[in-house]
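Exercise 7.
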Amino acid sequence: MKINKVNISKAMIVGGYCLIFILCVFSVASAENYIGIILDGYQKDCLVQNNGEYFDCKESRQLYAGDKIIKKQNVNSLKIKWAPYAKGKQLDNTSMMVLFDPPKDKKNILRDVKEFLGLVKTGHSISTGATRNGAGEVVFQPDNNATLISGQKSTFAWEKEGGKYIIFKDSNGLEIFRKDLKGEPFIKISPEEIGMKQGEVYFWNISGTRNNRQFKIRLLSPKVAQQVNADLKNIEKENMGTVNEIIQKAGYLQFISDAYPQDIDLYWFSYLILMENKDEKVLKDEDRILIKELKKNYLIHVRENI
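Solution. The predicted structure, written as tokens, is:
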């Protein structure tokens, strides 16, 4: 009996450390989107340092948090378009650091969405490395580390054919829910149906596929969920038309996810909203550009988090 108690105690300690590790990994995971674009002044003696590598400004006009810009003579001669809460902190006459510092109070995010969409539109003409999906190809949803919203069904879709069950487990590896896929390539489920609880990390996977990898999800906090729902309602109240409403909502969800990655990841929700636009042929060029870029943002976000 003593041996069994010791083994049980050891298992509990190991399980506790594993849970702490999982929570720490989850808390620091974040997607990265560009927060600035060099528009002019890059033509001579200009470099961007990103993750220890150097790029000519012509090849790296999109700027990310933590980038260092080096411009001989005077770094202030660069013309840069910034996202809300982004800026360049001058280190000396020839260099600056790219910073992204959103306020702790998330309540004013909605007012900055139009400025964010302006950056997305500007980045369209110089964007590189787009992720492409063929017609009829299933797009992975939701992205790894996604935060689900109580009362809101989420689409779970996977890129490979096959799969018998979708299975959800808690942070201890115990199965809490499974559902027969019945041959479908995606399924819509609410957090309540899964049995998710606030403050817990969960994992899901598809059984019967070659890649049986597990992906993390959790519930968005009630306070943040209330604010997000209120902001989306405020967008609806503006009566700006279906297409503009779709763009504003998707832009808002992506921007707030980028601003507070440790608390919020609603990129999956932005993609669902973008897919509500059924006929791109009737779109204005400006709207088509924004929808295309916001979809690409989601696909890049998924690629970086899987």
